[in-house]
Amino acid sequence: MRNLLSVAVFSLPLLSPVVQAEEPTTSHHAAAEHGAAVTHTQGVLKAWNPHKVSIAHPAIESLGWPPMTMNFLQPQPPLAELPADTPIEFSFRQVDGGYQLITLSASQQ
Fold first, then answer.
1. CA 81, 56, 96, 38 torsion-angle sign
2. Is the pTM of this model over 0.70?
């Protein structure tokens, strides 16, 4: 009986990784809040409002994106406004509901 108890006690830690591997994975929202990948690129600001910014950008190979114009969510509080057609440098990350700007500034050309 004593040997059986010893085997059970020492085997328990070996079973723990199996139980942990079956736990649910982190949600996309939690991943976005805890350091989702940040992408840096350039583009041209097309439209601005306190909730979203429309930007035309070149292809972003790391994401498999072709050149396009798309809306990026503003952080809160929103970033400082720039006029339309301003060449910009910006960074963003994926969040629930889209892609959110982290930085945005006029390009130093």
1. negative
2. no
